[in-house]
């Protein structure tokens, strides 16, 4: 991917994703018989993928060479099963093949008023509202105490992925930063395929890809993940160590927006968070 990319090159990415997932599989785990000749490349052979998916070898070859093939939904499902794709990876493959309907609505650039009110009402729990590209659209006071004062940031820099990679304060905040960044990149890749015409998203990816070697390395691994809940440990400059659970909720009326809520994971963190936000 280059800095001039403004849309998803689905043909190229479909080919690269199929190759990457094929090469990650261990033939022994799939119960395939051993070959007399040693394998020269890791993972499955194209012939084995074709057999598992019930398609021709030539078809798999053409897909992996990016010859402009657009597989049917049935073939995508068969390939997903053959490659043992996780649910988020399966959805990603359907997006690349153009077999999952996309909404015609513009990506949210501002918080829905009722949702912004809900974020405020969730105090004393730290909460914020984001869109699919991690732009922070609304936040409450507790989230600014826990993370960063979003009001003090230029609107173009109120993006959780950019902050985690580029902002000096947020870069040092997460104890397990490598995992946090990896999961964020994996989410962003899924969003990239689900919103192929979102120029702001592809511009953000291009900026991070060109300016941050860590992002470029993780982007090339093609991991796909959508985390609706999880656990993060923060090394807060004022409150000390904070163990936090988080939950991501998608409103039915505004599915382009995501409500992120944090909760303290233990009594010590709960007390420290209360002191921080008092």
Physical arrangement of strands within the biggest beta sheet: 2-1-5-4-3
Instruction: Give the strand content.
Output: 5-15%
The Cα radius of gyration reads 21 Å
Helix content: 40-55%
Number of domains: 2
Largest sheet, described in full? 5 strands, antiparallel
How many runs of DSSP E, i.e. beta strands? 5
Q: Please, how many helices?
A: 13
Looking at the overall shape, the CATH architecture of the largest domain is 2-Layer Sandwich
Distance between the termini: 46 Å
Query: What general form does the structure show?
Result: elongated
CATH topology of the largest domain: Beta-Lactamase
Commentary on this structure:
46% of the residues lie in helices and 13% in strands. The protein is an alpha+beta fold and 278 residues long. It has two domains: 87 residues, 434 Repressor (Amino-terminal Domain); 165 residues, Beta-Lactamase, CATH 3.30.450. α2 packs across α4 and α11 crosses α12. The relative contact order is 0.13. The N terminus is likely disordered.
In terms of topology, how is this protein built?
Elements: H1 10-24, H2 46-53, H3 57-64, H4 73-82, H5 87-96, H6 113-121, E1 127-131, E2 136-139, H7 141-146, H8 160-166, H9 168-171, H10 177-194, H11 199-211, H12 213-220, E3 229-236, E4 240-249, E5 257-264, H13 267-277
Antiparallel strand pairs: 1-2, 1-5, 3-4, 4-5
Helix pairs in contact: 2-3, 2-4, 4-5, 11-12
Please supply descriptive tags for the structure shown above:
single chain; Beta-Lactamase; 13 helices; alpha+beta; 5-stranded antiparallel β-sheet; 2 domains; disordered N terminus; 434 Repressor (Amino-terminal Domain); 278 residues; elongated; 5 strands
